[in-house]
Design a protein that fits this description.
This protein folds into 4 domains: 301 residues, ATPase, nucleotide binding domain (Nucleotidyltransferase, domain 5, 2-Layer Sandwich), CATH 3.30.420; 86 residues, Roll (Ubiquitin-like (UB roll)); 171 residues, no CATH class; 72 residues, Ubiquitin-like (UB roll), CATH 3.10.20. By secondary structure, the chain is an alpha+beta fold. The strands form 11 sheets. Strands 11-6-1-2-3-19 form a 6-stranded mixed β-sheet, with helices on both faces. A 6-stranded mixed β-sheet has the order 35-34-37-27-28-39. The protein starts with a strand and ends with a strand. Helix 5 packs antiparallel against helix 7 and helix 6 crosses helix 7.
Length: 732
């Protein structure tokens, strides 16, 4: 069996354990040795004299090598200290579509949690310490917002977790590594003392309960809390057994080592024998020691109790286990129970009973709470082999907590390399609206970060190698979005249809940007308001058809006399008429040609128009030159056109009405209201627009719905008494 060497480097003692785990998860201790520091080389769990601590470690190592007959080169250690920091946070990751959760996804989720915890710690860090992540533990997983024990292999739209991330200052970690290195050892695995202790003291089947574990050492008291099957919090207070020893030193006039002996004797015997600094021997009742230490015991118990409540959401726990040599002092568990509002039997020392799955090959080893942490350090090696590794990132030396799954992205996060610089960035998008509907055009994708490790191409997911040289050239942003009016679907595919002398003519919609007509090559800008115009003027229709209208002749829009500036909306009819021919004289020459055509030409055109009324053909044109010509001429006229009435009235129109009037009156129902039509012998559908108030400019690109007696109406359809008419704007 391959032995594991675990080392608990405490403030007072260094405890070494060598053993192995069987296939049945039983841990076998093959050797154990405890050595006190010769001097106070550690305070509050932090190394102050690296050389002296290294000497003690070397002595423990040498002794264990004698016991096992094997060389020891690697060691597992645990970190603690008064500046231990923990951050609990929640992170989520949402998939673009439902996906199977992989181990890599869970790893990514952990990294997001660590990064978020690091940012949270930076915001509240009021010290000069540079903190490193030295461990993390998942409290709960979430699959589509439901609590799950494990995520891998499940299908999910969203995953999340509550995670505890633990940090220690660089000095603490560096001190441990330096002392171990001077003792001729390398670190195989590193964990936290609270994690190591709880792995032994509170088995997983107990963790459904709300239990606190208190490891009372010499310099610190480490605290862990379990609930609902998980470790939910870690904490520490810088008060422990040494403070009890100090008060004994002062009261009994002894040195520190003798005070430690007095304290230990008081936990195992009714009487205590000691020599003071005058070499006078005394024998006293253990009760005297208890009385002297009582104020300190009470104070530490109160602080531990307060920390437990803080970590547990400001409430007490269901039970509390105590391990560590400092917890054995008389009255500590009783006082802690009192402060936690628990029965005394709910706060107990854990010793031999928690070592039930541990076998000791050496018969002389006493099962003791002191052994819980070093054995937990060994067991942690099998569950989560962690260590620190060193790499250089863009020229800077950094240290990372190794969980055997480190990748280049972990190094980037540790170095403070922004996520934005890892992944390609799109160029600036354009946000705008078309006919009231929001649109977004994304910028071009940029180039991803260029990653190399030891001079070879790599990716951000490439596993890290110790002492690697990593270089990342930041990602780049793509080109900003660019979009022209000509690219709009509304411009290319949306047309307005008119009936010109009985023939359907389809014209492209004009485009209005922020109230101004713009050509098709206009580059859309951020927050532009774009509307497709829902009308033409008679003049624009003629220009689009390459026609010249003789302005001396009459023009009709929906059978009402009009002029070149009259607005013509979707499905409106336009006719060019004369008293003699019934149609206007139209020249099929260039737009600027204003010369008169002969009567034969007019007759031909009249014949063509008459014949066209019997055809369903639709005339369409998409001439870019024509559209640009129209737009250029309309820029100055647009404001005037927008204010013009849909069906302008003039003197000629009034005269025609008087001549045609036969005093025939017809009443129809328009949108539920009666409307009386008068002044003509007969009436067609479009006549209602001269008798009702209907804003033809309010459509904003929408077509008019025309319904008569429950069916679609034609603009030229004759109206009769009592007809029911509906007019409204269709939805786009």
């Amino acid at each position: 069996m391959n032995n594991v060497f675990g080392l608990d480097i405490g403030t007072r003692n260094v405890v070494g354990t060598v053993g192995y785990q069987t296939d049945d998860k039983e841990f076998v201790v093959t050797a154990q040795y405890v050595r006190e520091h010769e001097t106070r080389a550690m305070l509050d769990g932090q190394i102050h004299d690296i050389g002296r601590v290294a000497k003690t470690i070397k002595e423990v190592k040498d002794e264990l090598e004698k016991q096992t007959g094997q060389p020891l080169e690697e060691v597992c250690i645990a970190a603690a200290g008064r500046v231990l920091k923990t951050v609990t946070t929640h992170v989520e990751y949402e998939y673009a579509q439902e996906s199977v959760v992989t181990g890599e996804d869970v790893h990514t989720l952990n990294l997001l949690g660590i990064e978020k915890a690091q940012e949270a710690l930076k915001e509240v860090n009021d010290t000069s310490y540079k903190f490193y992540c030295v461990g993390y533990s998942t409290v709960k997983f979430f699959l589509n917002d439901e609590v799950f024990i494990s995520l891998e292999g499940h299908k999910a739209n969203k995953i999340g977790e509550d995670i505890i991330v633990t940090f220690l200052p660089e000095d603490v970690v560096d001190g441990l590594y330096a002392a171990v290195g001077q003792a001729g050892l390398s670190v195989a695995n590193m964990t936290l003392e609270p994690i190591a202790a709880i792995n032994v003291a509170i088995p997983e089947n107990y963790r459904m309960l709300n239990i606190a574990l208190v490891d009372v050492g010499a310099g610190t008291s480490d605290i862990s809390i379990t609930r609902d099957g998980s470790i939910i919090a870690y904490g520490m207070i810088p008060h422990a057994g040494d403070e009890m020893t100090e008060v004994i030193v002062q009261h009994f006039l002894v040195d520190f080592n003798m005070a430690e002996s007095i304290k230990l004797q008081s936990t195992t015997s009714d009487t205590v024998t000691y020599k003071d600094i005058m070499s006078i021997e005394h024998t006293i009742p253990a009760q005297d020691v208890w009385d002297v230490a009582a104020p300190v015991v009470d104070s530490i118990a109160q602080e531990v109790s307060a920390k437990i409540r803080e970590l547990n959401g400001d409430k007490t726990v269901s039970a509390c286990f105590v391990v560590g040599g400092g917890g054995k002092i008389h009255g500590f568990t009783e006082k802690l129970a009192e402060d936690l509002d628990l029965p005394e039997e709910r706060v107990a020392l854990r010793g031999e009973e928690v070592l039930g799955d541990v076998t000791f090959e050496q018969e002389d080893i006493k099962k003791d709470p002191l052994l819980v942490t070093p054995i937990g350090i060994c067991l942690n090696y099998y569950e989560q082999r962690n260590n620190f590794i060193m790499v250089r990132f863009n020229g800077e030396r950094i240290k990372l907590y190794d969980n055997n799954r480190l990748t280049i992205v972990d190094a980037a996060l540790q170095a403070g390399f922004s996520n934005d610089e890892l992944f390609p960035k799109r160029g600036t998008p354009i946000n705008f609206t078309v006919n009231g509907v929001a649109r977004l055009v994304r910028g071009e994708a940029g180039e991803g970060a260029v990653v190399t490790m030891n001079g070879k191409p790599a990716s951000i997911n490439t596993p890290l190698e110790p002492n690697s040289e990593i270089i990342i050239e930041p990602s780049t942003a793509g080109e900003a979005a660019e979009y022209k009016i000509s690219q709009l679907d509304e411009y290319n595919h949306s047309v307005i249809t008119f009936v010109i002398n009985g023939r359907k003519v389809s014209c492209p919609r004009f485009v209005q940007v922020n109230g101004r007509l713009e050509p098709e090559d206009y580059s859309i800008r951020e927050n532009d308001v774009i509307e497709t115009r829902n009308y033409y003027t008679v003049r624009q229709i003629a220009q689009f058809m390459d026609l010249v209208i003789d302005t001396d002749q009459m023009i009709f829009v929906n059978n009402e006399e009009a002029d070149l500036d009259t607005l013509v909306y979707e499905n409106f009819s336009v006719e060019w008429k004369t008293d003699e021919y019934g149609v206007a004289r139209i020249d099929n020459n260039n737009y600027n040609d204003t010369q008169e055509s002969d009567s034969d030409d007019a007759s031909v055109l009249a014949e063509q128009d008459v014949n066209s009324t019997e055809s369903d053909n639709t005339v369409t044109r998409t001439s870019e030159q024509m559209m640009n010509q129209v737009l250029d001429e309309l820029h100055d006229e647009f404001a005037k056109e927008a204010e013009a009435p849909a069906v302008p009235e003039n003197d000629i129109q009034e005269e025609i009405h008087e001549e045609d009037s036969s005093e025939n009156t017809v009443t129809v129902i328009v949108n539920g209201e009666p409307v009386e039509l008068s002044g003509k012998d007969t009436y067609i559908f479009v006549d209602i627009f001269t008798h009702i108030s209907f804003d033809l400019q309010a459509g904003k690109g929408r077509a008019i719905a025309t319904v008569i007696n429950g069916r679609d109406a034609q603009f030229s359809e004759e109206l009769h008494e009592g007809d029911k008419i509906e007019l409204y704007w269709k939805e786009n």
